[in-house]
Structure formats: structure tokens, C-alpha cells
Design brief:
With about 350 residues, the chain is an alpha/beta fold. The protein is built from 12 helices and 18 strands. The strands form 4 sheets. Strands 3, 5, 6, 9, 10, 17 and 18 form a 7-stranded mixed beta sheet that branches. It has a 6-stranded parallel beta sheet with strand order 13-12-11-14-15-16, with helices on both faces. Helix 4 crosses helix 5 and helix 4 packs across helix 10. The two termini are about 15 Å apart. The model has no long low-confidence stretch (mean pLDDT about 95).
Length: about 350
């Protein structure tokens, strides 16, 4: 079968590899669509999380590995012992891998497993014609949701999970730093949780229309002071909740400074280098810092948001490429035109 195999920095090759065989408890899926995640782009450009010299702590795998953890497809084969699923079922999946035996896994928080791994980073993923996935990680795609749109459920689940960690935010003033797919997942997470007002900050006007059409406010931080806008927007009270969805020291510092005393700050961004955190500013006003890692079972709710039309899938999918053109039309295009795009999809099969 054809697959996009990561060999190293800016070295992804479209190769013919052996089709996977489902182990007991796993299913084999024919991949129809897949999405390029920020993690995939990090693997292409660096820094890299794919193990090169030391085998992954859970899977024992090292590079080369097939990328991809956001996908949709159809089950073509059941591994031994799989129940509740049939060949032909339309599915997507949680791409996390866990040991099942540590304290976190036993408590249902497998997203923070002590040996956590992911499809496409710790073992072969879904940028391929076929992928095998543990049956317990599957989600059925409901009628009314296309295979194409279902790919969005994975990143949207991240915002739903992060929002649930924050607790009750009904009626609260929310600021989101970063209007990429993770920031937008936070936007719909906050909206569906009953947030009062939502202000999204970005660079340029790429997302203004989308945010305003869906009931939010937008600030272009390249031409307007975010701190001043938040102060005016809240009559000097500052934000009840701030989501940091970029992963930079500068925006983390901003998130702290624009949150009110007792405010909640959710860090969703992935940091390329270790940031410095102003703990004094956090402590002096008893601001609370939260972090979030992927999701657990929120994909089901994300699929329902897509099915109901609450999330406008067409507006979030900004480019489609093929597996053969993935490197040039996908990764290289994103490097040059990244701010223009929300989610780039790979059409692998019908």
C-alpha cells in the first residue's frame, strides 16, 4: 500500500509499504480522508517527537514511521475478539495509545498515560491507504456527517476536553489567543459550554468573518493592543477565562496579564522550547493555570456538533491535497501560506 513515511527533518517519502494486519482487539481501516495536524507539521519542520534512536516507551518503535492521527475510513477487517463493530462501518478514532494499566489509565484518563503515545508519532499512522486501530478507540460516524467532515472531530475534541477541565464557564468573558484549528476548537468548546462573550485574538484578519458570523468578537493583534482591547471589552475587569492556543512565551505571558484576579488560564498550545512563566503575577491575583492534553471521549460530541451544523465544517476545511502531493501541496504550502489555512485535508481514497 501507499504511505507517507517520515524519515527525518523535511524528509517525508511516499512509499509502498506492507499492509498492516490487525492484532487481537484491533481493526483494519481503509483510510478515506486524513488531516494535517500541527503535530505533523512540527515533525516535518522540527522539533521532532518521533523516536529516532531510543525506542518509544510504549510501542518500542523508532523512525521511519507513517505519519497521521486525524482520519476517517471504513473497517475492512476485524482482529480476533473484536465485538460491536462490523466490516463496512464508517469510523474515526482517538489516535492516542496507552498502556491500560497505570493509575491514569485505570481511572479513565488514558490521555495522560504514563507511557502515552500517538498514532503517527509513536507507531504507524493514518497517512496511508490502511491503518490498524484498537477497537476501543473507535467512534462511529453518524448519518449526516461525511467522511471528509468527520476528520475535524479529532481537533474539535481537544477544545471540548480543555473546556470541561475548566469547570463551569457559563456567562463568563472568554479570550482565545490563536485562531488556528485548536483556537477554534476552544471557541466552539466555550460556546457550547455557555460562555457569555468570546473574544478571539489573531494576527491579520483571516478569521474575523468566521468568528463574527458565529457570535464572537475578533481583534487583529498586529494593529491593535490586545491588552487595551480586553480592558475596554470588559470595562477594566479583564477576562474570566483565557485559552492560550499558540505555544509561545509571549502569548503565555499575555494570557496571564489579561486574566482577572481569580481568572482561569487554559494552556493548549504546544511549546517548541521551554517557556518562562511569571509565577508572581499568577500568584498575586490567585490566577489559576490549567493545561490540557488531547482528549478522552469527546470525539462523539464533536461529531454531533458537525452533524447538527453547529460547527461549519466547510469553513474550517481550507485545502484538499492527495497523498502523492502531500509534501509539496501540503507541508510546503503550509510553511509558505500557513496563516491562510485552518485545516488541510488529504484525500486518500473514496
Amino acid at each position: 500500500m501507499k504511505a507517507a513515511v517520515w524519515h527525518g527533518y523535511k524528509d517525508i517519502r511516499i512509499e509502498d509499504v506492507k499492509e498492516p494486519v490487525p492484532q487481537p482487539g484491533y481493526v483494519k481501516i481503509k483510510v478515506n480522508w486524513a488531516g494535517i495536524c500541527g503535530t505533523d507539521r512540527h515533525e516535518y519542520e522540527g522539533p521532532n517527537f518521533i523516536p529516532v534512536e531510543r525506542p518509544h516507551r510504549l510501542t518500542g518503535r523508532t523512525a521511519p514511521l507513517t505519519l497521521g492521527h486525524e482520519f476517517s475510513g471504513v473497517i475492512t477487517q476485524l482482529g480476533e475478539g473484536v465485538e460491536g463493530w462490523s466490516v463496512g462501518d464508517r469510523v474515526t478514532a482517538n489516535g492516542s495509545l496507552s498502556c491500560g494499566s497505570c493509575e491514569a489509565c485505570r481511572s479513565g484518563r488514558f490521555n495522560v498515560c504514563s507511557r502515552l503515545g500517538f498514532l503517527g508519532v509513536s507507531t504507524d499512522g493514518a497517512f496511508a491507504e490502511y491503518v490498524t486501530v484498537e477497537a476501543s478507540r473507535l467512534f462511529r460516524i453518524p448519518d449526516g456527517v461525511s467522511q471528509r467532515d468527520a476528520v475535524l472531530s479529532e481537533p474539535l475534541a481537544c477544545g471540548l476536553h480543555a473546556t470541561r477541565l475548566l469547570g463551569d464557564i457559563r456567562g463568563k468573558d472568554v479570550v482565545i489567543l490563536g485562531p488556528g484549528i485548536i483556537g477554534l476548537s476552544a471557541f466552539w468548546g466555550a460556546k457550547t459550554a455557555g460562555a457569555g462573550r468570546i473574544l478571539v485574538s489573531g494576527i491579520g484578519d483571516y478569521r474575523r468573518e468566521l468568528i463574527e458570523q458565529n457570535g464572537g468578537a475578533y481583534v487583529d493583534a498586529s494593529v491593535e493592543s490586545l491588552e487595551q482591547r480586553v480592558s475596554e471589552w470588559t470595562d477594566g475587569n479583564l477576562a474570566d477565562v483565557v485559552y492560550e492556543c499558540i505555544g509561545s512565551e509571549r502569548t503565555l505571558d499575555q494570557a496571564i496579564r489579561i486574566s482577572k484576579p481569580g481568572g482561569r488560564i487554559m494552556v493548549m498550545g504546544v511549546f517548541g522550547k521551554k517557556p518562562s512563566v511569571d509565577l508572581n503575577t499568577l500568584q498575586e491575583a490567585e490566577r489559576i493555570l490549567f493545561t490540557s492534553q488531547a482528549h478522552v471521549n469527546e470525539i462523539a460530541d464533536a461529531l454531533e456538533l458537525i452533524r447538527s451544523g453547529t460547527v461549519p465544517a466547510d469553513a474550517l476545511i481550507t485545502r484538499e491535497v492527495t497523498l502523492d502531493t502531500l509534501v509539496q501541496d501540503g507541508f510546503e504550502h503550509l510553511i509558505e501560506h500557513g496563516p491562510e489555512h485552518i485545516k488541510v485535508l488529504i484525500h486518500i481514497s473514496d
